[in-house]
Amino acid sequence: MSINKDLLGLDSLDTLPVISFSASQSLNASSAVREAISTGLPRLDEALDDSSSDEPRRSGGIIRGHVTEVFGPPGVGKTSFALTVASQALRDGGKVVWIDTGSPLATSRLKSLSSENLSQLTYFRAPTLPHLLALLIRPPRGFPPPDTSLIVIDSISSLFPGYFLSAAELKDRLAQGKITDKPQLQWLLNRKWNVIGDIASHLTRLAARNVAVLALNQTHTKIKGQPRATLHPVVAGGVWDTNVQTRIVLYRDLPDWRFAEVTKRAGKTMVVRLTEFIVPFRVGDDGLEAVGEPQSPEPIVPTPSRKRKADNEVADSQDEDSDEEFEWLGDDALLDEKE
């Protein structure tokens, strides 16, 4: 069994013409039944199925036509989650596009999870942020292939640290006089969010082709303005949050237990720590496995904060230090858009 591989070249991209849709076509598409790809966890599929929504659905799971984000700390099972969803998409007869931004695809693991022909999987390697932008903005001919049901990006956030300075680094440059005026500082702040916005918009356009887009996101830890240390996605912001219709956070909150929690569904932010949206699981040889019901974590009472409410919190974060959310700038005008 072979996998279609495409190592992205930036000098000879053959692009497809831009396809436009009329308002009537868009309306008909929006009223169509949304198909879903199972996560392999029946309870999580149920939690993802918004039966109260006006939008008709065939079943719960990773919805085609939507951008779904899965984020969590290292080692919690994000890639295993994506592999399980990909294997289910292959079993359903669809095609899968896997975009690797750093971690090679475990093809042997995927092959063991799916009995289907892996020739239905197309693998792209985007080792740098310009490669990923080129693939999304100026895609090669035939991307994505016809009948593609799932696009996985593993991960959307791993390429950003090498191209954009952290808040602490910007603070040091400001103190050293390397950043001399506010317009320069504003440009440095804006360019990251502009790139995130471009990526989010193009992922939404891909999803509009009745494709489920699954973006894996890493985390960093916020401290200031939060009731306690809180995990937050590395790639975030107003445009990104607007384009992500579904958000699932994976975390460990009890010894030897992993949890998947739905924090956004059908474009609506959910109240955190509700039992019906928290699904315990473990990662086994056959993918994600449902486990018995452990003692539920105590509900968290939201604490008023100057910042917006956190997406989720984890007691045992092992991730990056807080970037202090640009509070050191002393200019609220620079903060509004970033939040």
UniProtKB/TrEMBL annotation:
<dbReference type="GO" id="GO:0033063">
    <property type="term" value="C:Rad51B-Rad51C-Rad51D-XRCC2 complex"/>
</dbReference>
<dbReference type="GO" id="GO:0000400">
    <property type="term" value="F:four-way junction DNA binding"/>
</dbReference>
<dbReference type="InterPro" id="IPR027417">
    <property type="entry name" value="P-loop_NTPase"/>
</dbReference>
<dbReference type="GO" id="GO:0005657">
    <property type="term" value="C:replication fork"/>
</dbReference>
<dbReference type="GO" id="GO:0000707">
    <property type="term" value="P:meiotic DNA recombinase assembly"/>
</dbReference>
<dbReference type="GO" id="GO:0005524">
    <property type="term" value="F:ATP binding"/>
</dbReference>
<dbReference type="InterPro" id="IPR020588">
    <property type="entry name" value="RecA_ATP-bd"/>
</dbReference>
<dbReference type="GO" id="GO:0008821">
    <property type="term" value="F:crossover junction DNA endonuclease activity"/>
</dbReference>
<feature type="domain" description="RecA family profile 1">
    <location>
        <begin position="33"/>
        <end position="219"/>
    </location>
</feature>
<keyword id="KW-0547">Nucleotide-binding</keyword>
<dbReference type="GO" id="GO:0140664">
    <property type="term" value="F:ATP-dependent DNA damage sensor activity"/>
</dbReference>
<dbReference type="GO" id="GO:0033065">
    <property type="term" value="C:Rad51C-XRCC3 complex"/>
</dbReference>
<protein>
    <recommendedName>
        <fullName>DNA repair protein RAD51 homolog 3</fullName>
    </recommendedName>
</protein>
<dbReference type="GO" id="GO:0007131">
    <property type="term" value="P:reciprocal meiotic recombination"/>
</dbReference>
<keyword id="KW-0227">DNA damage</keyword>
<dbReference type="InterPro" id="IPR003593">
    <property type="entry name" value="AAA+_ATPase"/>
</dbReference>
<feature type="region of interest" description="Disordered">
    <location>
        <begin position="288"/>
        <end position="339"/>
    </location>
</feature>
<dbReference type="Pfam" id="PF08423">
    <property type="entry name" value="Rad51"/>
</dbReference>
<keyword id="KW-0067">ATP-binding</keyword>
<feature type="compositionally biased region" description="Acidic residues">
    <location>
        <begin position="313"/>
        <end position="339"/>
    </location>
</feature>
<keyword id="KW-0234">DNA repair</keyword>
<feature type="region of interest" description="Disordered">
    <location>
        <begin position="44"/>
        <end position="63"/>
    </location>
</feature>
<dbReference type="InterPro" id="IPR052093">
    <property type="entry name" value="HR_Repair_Mediator"/>
</dbReference>
<keyword id="KW-0539">Nucleus</keyword>
<dbReference type="InterPro" id="IPR013632">
    <property type="entry name" value="Rad51_C"/>
</dbReference>
